[in-house]
């Protein structure tokens, strides 16, 4: 099976020449197709990070969003100006591996992966895993991650009671929102493997799903939460309570991710109405948002990784807009000069 990465570099006004395919639009944004990706797979949920002068890219490989061939996870790396190299593939027999996410705790890089188990088309189990980076191209094998019940929940789904969609570390503690069709709450851990529910989210909290938590330089916790609209939430009392302080009216933003930049939250995800990968900016001082950019995308797409390096925003994502009527998808990595976006 051929596994190659489609790397797009978005550089505004200053871009090097390349013999490969070059596209441009009337705003002066140019796209360079550096390396082709050709595979008979799709639904490639991605993440991206830069750690100790090395890039890491992760994505899922399967033939269906769910209830298809069990997903496997491909881990790639490269140094600056090098090509991507596949260094590890994660598989668990009988488990559909999904939504891999990088997580950094000081000088420690980890990878978290969710697992779903099915019987025909019924979900019957949740499991979660972690791999820790050693050095160079070396990673540990998967270890089990457990979410312990805060209150009894009646469910046919075995294993973890929730889906810890993204794990964020702060002051040697790991935090994640665990969600499922029967619950949503905040979990924390000191070792990153055993998570306890804090039971701080009231039942009156709006409908919720995939969530990303970040901590600002003041120690305040922020989260974006997938719902009918995208909810922006905050905790300033050491996670004793959370409040929704604003929302962005975009339909069910799939794979919501964000990072802080100056006084703004840069937010990415899939607009589930337009079926496009979009980039938003939310101004924390003015309490206002704007759509910055629509990435080349369409059909099944989204689930982006985000990194800022050298005043550029790097984004990984997948999209099926260039494939065969949406039946397959490609993995993309793009970099955008932030000053060209007015940031």
Would you write up a description of this structure?
- The chain is mainly β.
- It has a single domain (6-341), classed as Neuraminidase.
- The protein contains no helices and 29 strands.
- It has strands at residues 6-12, 22-24, 29-33, 46-51, 54-61, 72-78, 85-90, 96-105, 108-119, 122-135, 138-139, 143-148, 158-159, 163-164, 168-170, 173-180, 183-189, 194-197, 211-215, 221-225, 230-235, 243-248, 254-261, 264-271, 276-283, 288-294, 301-309, 312-319, 330-337.
- A hairpin with a 2-residue loop joins strand 8 (96-105) and strand 9 (108-119).
Q: Topology, please?
A:
Layout: E1 6-12, E2 22-24, E3 29-33, E4 46-51, E5 54-61, E6 72-78, E7 85-90, E8 96-105, E9 108-119, E10 122-135, E11 138-139, E12 143-148, E13 158-159, E14 163-164, E15 168-170, E16 173-180, E17 183-189, E18 194-197, E19 211-215, E20 221-225, E21 230-235, E22 243-248, E23 254-261, E24 264-271, E25 276-283, E26 288-294, E27 301-309, E28 312-319, E29 330-337
List the domain count as a whole number: 1
Describe the global form. Answer: globular
SSE string: EEEEEEEEEEEEEEEEEEEEEEEEEEEEE
Task: Output mean pLDDT.
Answer: 85
**Into which percentage range does the β-strand content fall?**
over 45%
The CATH topology label is Neuraminidase
Provide the CATH architecture: 6 Propeller
Q: Roughly how many Å apart are the termini? A: 41 Å
Helix content percent band: under 10%
Number of strands: 29
CATH class: Mainly Beta
Q: Structural class given helices, strands, pairing? A: mainly beta
- Stretches where pLDDT is under 50 for at least 5 consecutive residues are 8-38
Radius of gyration: 19 Å
Largest sheet: 11 strands, mixed
């Amino acid at each position: 099976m051929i596994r190659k990465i489609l790397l797009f570099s978005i550089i505004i006004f200053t871009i090097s020449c390349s013999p490969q395919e070059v596209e441009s639009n009337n705003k002066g944004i140019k796209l360079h197709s550096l390396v082709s990706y050709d595979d008979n797979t799709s639904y490639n949920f991605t993440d991206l990070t830069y750690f100790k002068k090395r890039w890491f890219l992760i994505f899922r490989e399967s033939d269906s969003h769910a209830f298809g061939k069990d997903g496997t996870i491909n881990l790639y790396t490269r140094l600056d100006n090098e090509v991507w190299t596949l260094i590890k593939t994660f598989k668990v027999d009988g488990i559909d591996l999904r939504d891999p996410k990088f997580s950094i705790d000081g000088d420690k890089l980890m990878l978290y992966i969710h697992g779903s188990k099915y019987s025909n088309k019924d979900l019957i189990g949740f499991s979660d895993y972690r791999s820790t980076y050693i050095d160079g191209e070396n990673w540990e094998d998967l270890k089990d991650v457990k979410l312990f019940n805060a209150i009894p929940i009646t469910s046919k789904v075995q294993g973890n009671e929730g889906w810890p969609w993204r794990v964020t570390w702060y002051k040697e503690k790991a935090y994640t929102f665990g969600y499922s069709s029967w619950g949503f709450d905040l979990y924390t851990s000191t070792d990153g493997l055993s998570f306890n529910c804090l039971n701080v989210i009231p039942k009156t909290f709006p409908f919720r799903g995939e969530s990303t938590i970040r901590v600002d330089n003041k120690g305040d916790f922020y989260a974006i939460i997938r719902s009918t609209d995208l909810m922006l939430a905050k905790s300033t009392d050491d996670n004793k309570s959370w409040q929704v302080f604003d929302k962005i009216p975009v339909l069910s933003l799939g794979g919501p991710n964000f990072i802080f930049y100056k006084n703004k939250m840069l937010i990415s995800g899939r607009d589930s109405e337009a079926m496009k990968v979009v980039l938003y900016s939310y101004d924390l001082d003015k309490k206002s948002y704007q759509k910055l950019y629509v990435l080349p995308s369409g059909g099944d797409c989204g689930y982006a990784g985000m990194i800022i390096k050298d005043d550029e925003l790097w984004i990984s994502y997948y999209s099926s807009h260039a494939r065969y009527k949406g039946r397959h998808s490609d993995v993309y990595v793009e970099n955008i000069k932030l000053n060209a976006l007015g940031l």
